[in-house]
């Protein structure tokens, strides 16, 4: 049965038919997986923003100076590599974002809370480094 309203239960079917939780151990591991994947989503977005800054040749804000990333890019081959890497990160970020959205659409309250907490934790550790002034296109309206 598919729920159409939020419910609080340890029994949840997440993303695929074989991912079903029956007991508290399965449920807590599922919530931990949701939390880790949503924090990883923020990490990927952070890397994508930094890569976009490198490709544009813009300096990093002083809060996110990284010596290894300050190398100047010269030539079309290096710029093509940055574009390819950016496209791969965009695809990975989009896929993870949509899977998180579908997980929330399971309407399980615990899954929703775990994903939101994971996004907050990921933002705290990876995204609050002066990137608010940088506009980056995103595929997910919720990011």
UniProtKB/TrEMBL annotation:
GO CC aspect terms: plasma membrane
Keywords: Copper, Copper transport, Ion transport, Membrane, Transmembrane, Transmembrane helix, Transport
Entry's Gene Ontology molecular function annotations: copper ion transmembrane transporter activity
Pfam families registered for this protein in UniProt: Ctr (PF04145)
Location of the protein in the cell: Membrane
Membrane topology, from the record: Multi-pass membrane protein
Keyword Membrane in record: yes
Main location: membrane
Domain of life per record: Eukaryota
Keyword presence, Transport: yes
Entry's family note: Belongs to the copper transporter (Ctr) (TC 1.A.56) family. SLC31A subfamily.
UniProt-recorded name of the protein: Copper transport protein
Organism: Vigna radiata var. radiata (Mung bean)
Designated gene of the protein: LOC106760908
């Amino acid at each position: 049965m598919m729920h159409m309203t939020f419910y609080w239960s340890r029994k949840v079917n997440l993303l695929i038919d074989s991912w079903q939780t029956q007991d508290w151990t399965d449920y807590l591991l599922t919530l931990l997986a949701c939390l880790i994947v949503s924090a990883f989503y923020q990490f990927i977005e952070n890397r994508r923003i930094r890569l976009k800054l490198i490709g544009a040749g813009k300096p990093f804000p002083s809060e996110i100076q990284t010596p290894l990333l300050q190398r100047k890019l010269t030539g079309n081959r290096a710029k093509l590599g940055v574009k390819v890497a950016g496209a791969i990160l965009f695809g990975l970020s989009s896929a993870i974002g949509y899977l998180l959205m579908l997980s929330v659409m399971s309407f399980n309250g615990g899954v929703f809370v775990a994903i939101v907490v994971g996004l907050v934790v990921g933002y705290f550790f990876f995204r609050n480094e002066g990137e608010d002034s940088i506009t980056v296109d995103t595929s997910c309206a919720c990011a």
